[in-house]
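Progress note, sequence design subtask.
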């Protein structure tokens, strides 16, 4: 639903939807607290304001309308799904990607009603972080939720967290999917032990500021990013732990300790992806390349200096995992199949640009490659300890540069 259009003025929008001030701020709009400035700037059309910021009008309109829609709907949907029912038959816990959380919860609410299911669900936005989720994981497997959904490696493989239950073999992939989407061909992304389900992935891509590129070679591969040419020139999503850990692990696997050191030396600054899309407007030294989730590239303006580049050697991916308890297979099977369905896959892929593993979803990718950590590597390493080790190498290389 479109709540606003490009002809409306900023003052009209703020009067009708005051909560959108946060959205405007996140896209680089300033001075709204100054009434005099707002009376002047706020009188021009939204379209003119967006173009002055060199942002995509269509993408901005889609984003702000989604923001309003989510703000209206999220509270009610969240309350419905987070209600704790002591007599619930099934419990679900996890983190859902922010851009698609509301449509996913809407679909889930509809599914529950159609199937008359008594479920306790606590599915928070990924931006809330993992700390609360880690606290909910007890040493006794009988106390953990029946289904877990989240992205990243540390939660699912650390021995102090879900890793301990993997060793006890209490999980089973009950989605019924035997072959993943053709976009993941030859990656062997399906768990050979049949413990874990992967329903989607978060790809890391490059956003290149061509105004800052100078005589440097346009970066098309991860090797380019790690070259001496790009020292102190890169912005990384350090605060996005799921994706950052995936980047660290894959760089370590492909390039060893030296690769992780080079990544640390390449770091100019850490940014949230929402900041990355407007990094060309920073007053201080600007990153030449920002490494970010694929979703955020849709917020860049057409014809501006920021150019998205899918790495030619592959976008490093952070999988969105789903774990389901084996001893409740009969009760959980239909729910697992729902979350792994084409319907959910299309929401993830088409609305969030999180490519789905479902074989019948068209991810609308043009033979773009992925870099996947691999089950052999996962199963032969203590992933939790390796993440900590890579972080130490990365942080030390930053200190050496300083």
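Output:
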């Amino acid at each position: 639903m479109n709540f606003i259009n490009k002809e409306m003025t900023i003052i009209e929008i703020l009067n009708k939807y005051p909560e959108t001030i946060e959205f405007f701020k996140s896209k680089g709009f300033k001075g709204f607290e100054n009434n005099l400035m707002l009376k002047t700037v706020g009188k021009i059309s939204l379209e003119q304001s967006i173009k002055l910021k060199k942002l995509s009008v269509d993408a901005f309109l889609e984003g702000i309308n989604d923001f309003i829609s989510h703000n209206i709907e999220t509270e009610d949907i969240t309350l419905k799904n987070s209600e704790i029912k002591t007599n619930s038959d099934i419990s679900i816990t996890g983190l859902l990607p922010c851009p698609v959380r509301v449509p996913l919860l809407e679909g889930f609410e509809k599914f529950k009603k159609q199937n008359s299911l008594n479920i306790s669900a606590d599915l928070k936005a990924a931006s809330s972080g993992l700390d609360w989720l880690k606290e909910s994981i007890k040493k006794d497997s009988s106390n953990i939720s029946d289904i877990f959904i989240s992205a990243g490696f540390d939660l699912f493989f650390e021995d102090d967290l879900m890793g301990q239950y993997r060793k006890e073999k209490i999980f089973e992939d009950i989605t019924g999917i035997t072959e993943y989407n053709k976009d993941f061909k030859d990656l062997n992304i399906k768990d050979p032990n049949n413990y874990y389900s992967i329903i989607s992935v978060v790809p890391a891509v490059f956003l290149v500021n061509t105004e800052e590129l100078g005589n440097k070679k346009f970066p098309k591969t991860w090797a380019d990013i790690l070259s001496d040419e790009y020292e102190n020139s890169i912005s990384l999503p350090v605060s996005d732990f799921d994706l950052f850990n995936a980047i660290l692990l894959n760089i370590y696997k492909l390039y060893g300790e030296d690769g992780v050191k080079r990544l640390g030396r390449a770091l100019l600054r850490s940014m949230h992806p929402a900041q990355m899309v407007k990094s060309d407007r920073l007053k201080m030294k600007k990153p030449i390349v920002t490494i970010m989730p694929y979703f955020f590239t849709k917020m860049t303006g057409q014809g501006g200096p920021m150019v998205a580049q899918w790495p030619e050697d592959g976008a490093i991916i952070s999988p969105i995992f789903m774990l389901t308890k084996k001893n409740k297979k009969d009760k959980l099977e239909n729910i697992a199949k729902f979350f792994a369905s084409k319907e959910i896959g299309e929401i993830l892929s088409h609305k969030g640009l999180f490519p789905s593993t479902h074989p019948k979803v068209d991810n609308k990718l043009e033979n773009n490659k992925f870099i996947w950590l691999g089950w052999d590597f996962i199963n032969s390493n203590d992933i939790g300890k390796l993440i900590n080790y890579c972080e130490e190498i990365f942080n030390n290389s930053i200190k050496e540069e300083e």
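Residues 57-82 form the longest helix (26 residues). Work on this subtask will continue into the next period as scheduled.
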